Amino acid sequence: MTSKPQPQLPAGNASMLSGVSENLTFHASPESFIVNHVLHYHKQHPGEVANRVPLRAKILNRNVIIVSAYHQVRAVLCPRDERTDDEGDGKVPYVAAAPYKRLMEAFFPPPNLLLNDGCPHRKMKEPWAVCVQSLESEKMQSRIVARTSGLIKRLVGSEAVDLYKELKELSWEIFLSTVLDFSPADQGYADINAGIWHSPRKTGIGARKKLQSIILDRLRSRRPVWISEDVLKSRPEEEIVNHLLMSTSSLAVKAFSSLLLAFLLNVYLFGGDDAVPGQILKWIATGSPQEAEEKAEAVLQETLRLSPPIVGVMRRATTERTLPSLGSSESDTMVPASWDVWSYFPGANRDHAVFGGDADYFKMARYLVDDSRLPPPIAFGLGSKTCLGQQFVFKAATAVLQAFRQSRVELKGSVISPGMKGWLGWEIASPEQWAKDIKQLPTQRPSKPTMIHVIRNT
Ligand code: HEM
Question: Does the keyword Metal-binding apply (predicted)?
Fold first, then answer.
């Protein structure tokens, strides 16, 4: 029996591009950057075409390993030896706070969960994990249906609209009425308009401060119903404000609109042949209400798999680590201490070793089949830092679809570029088409407007 070779650093590409141009290419399109690096590697190692090899790059002058095999993303985000004991002092194998501080602290001020690791993180998360369940209640669902019905009423019969833009306004209204518990009848509602997060990055900090002070006033005058007494008593006011800020941030709004856009396009226009109504809508509507719900959830899971709104998360290795390879004759990947690891979700979610040969394609019933080998998509992270809003987002997206279905409207439009079809999993797109048609940071969305008519079903 041959023994496994020694762990090795991933294929280095630092010589291929200078540090500066690597930064630019990566931020212009992670997909194109990663795919081009993989193609370059495959040219040199033709025997490894089927593997999603980890790649080494210099991003923002740091050594970064980009990981896009499903099992390796798992190994980074939920390492088996993650410490959760009470003696834990934050010394987990991979930390998030260190890489995030530089990128996100200005927008997500501490104290907050995202900028925390290890035992302090776990202690902070426990009461929030309980309290967030109230956001998933029927009452919140009906608010979401009401806000969405309002949007549909406004759009029916109007000129074609940029669907992503409209969904961004809707997402903000949904977060206002659920997370912050504001109703349109409330005094001052109009002042907290969606414009608060529309500012460019350089004025974004001003917008953040404005929202922070609105949230603080809100908390003191009338606390949002879902914030429990326990959280109110046990957590500092500053932390509560910061979490409300994170949950209604520009990033959360953009991520939710990205998901809604991909979800509605899949349900109403799958295939891109301008068919009205879409085949998926018909499929969902066939059968009992419970079956319809299950089918809608399966389509949402498949949407999250192929088109995760957030393309990845960062970690920094606290000690030297290895990432396991799949084959027993291939060496594991060495991760030196203090290197960053970037988990790329669209890659992991299209890993043929896990999702099969049709991994790149949208299959509406993929998640309807009872198959224990089919893992969930990675869209909300994994492990101890999994998104706190995951269930809420899932329920909110299905409530939006419910409102569309109840309104008996159809979406008509065919502005589906090759890169968009690749993003949605309708067709395979080249890295160049992907880079041209899809913006990936901070969240995935089409680079050009997706013009859609909302018409009443006759
Ligand atoms: C489609 C919308 C959203 C997506 C795709 C998303 C995705 C994510 C991801 C990938 C992470 C993991 C970060 C990491 O591992 O480094 C995360 C963390 C988090 N998310 Fe979300 N999120 C969404 C919306 C929300 C909403 C609406 C809320 C609040 C209600 C929320 C609250 C949080 C919090 C508090 C964390 C930090 C968790 C921790 O560090 O333990 N998210 N989210």
Answer: yes
Which CA distances in Å does 456 have to 48, 103, 156, 199, 339? Answer: 51, 44, 6, 34, 54
Dig out the tokens for 305 from the structure: 């798999």
381 lines ligand 1 (CB under 6 A): yes
**Atom from ligand 1 closest to the CA of residue 116:** 40
Q: Is the CB of 281 under 6 A from ligand 1?
A: no
Enumerate the β-bridge partners of residue 55. Answer: 11, 66
Q: What is the number of structural domains in the chain?
A: 1
Domain-located, residue 281: no
Q: Which two structure tokens, joined as six digits, stand for 318?
A: 């606290």
**For residue 424, is it within any domain?**
no
Give 82's pLDDT tier (boundaries 50, 70, 90): low
Rg (CA), the chain: 22
Task: List pLDDT tens digits, range 280-331.
Answer: 999 999 999 999 999 999 999 999 999 999 999 999 999 999 998 887 778 8
- Residue whose CA lies nearest to ligand 1 atom number 41: 385
Model confidence pLDDT, tens digit, residues 209-238: 888 898 999 899 999 999 999 999 999 999
Structure tokens at 308: 């995760």
Q: For ligand 1, what atom is nearest to the CA of residue 258?
A: 1
CB atoms within 10 A of CB 438: 24
Beta carbons of 90 and 118 less than 8 angstroms apart:
yes
Choose one of 101, 387, 390, 440 to mutate for the ligand 1 pocket test, by most ligand atoms within 8 angstroms of C-beta: 387
CATH at 46: 3.30.43.20
Domain span including residue 41: 1-106+309-348
Lookup result for tokens 């995760």: 308
Residue 179 CB less than 6 A away from ligand 1? yes
Q: Which two tokens stand for residue 10?
A: 């991933």
DSSP label at 408?
T
Residue 40 is assigned to a structural domain of this protein: yes
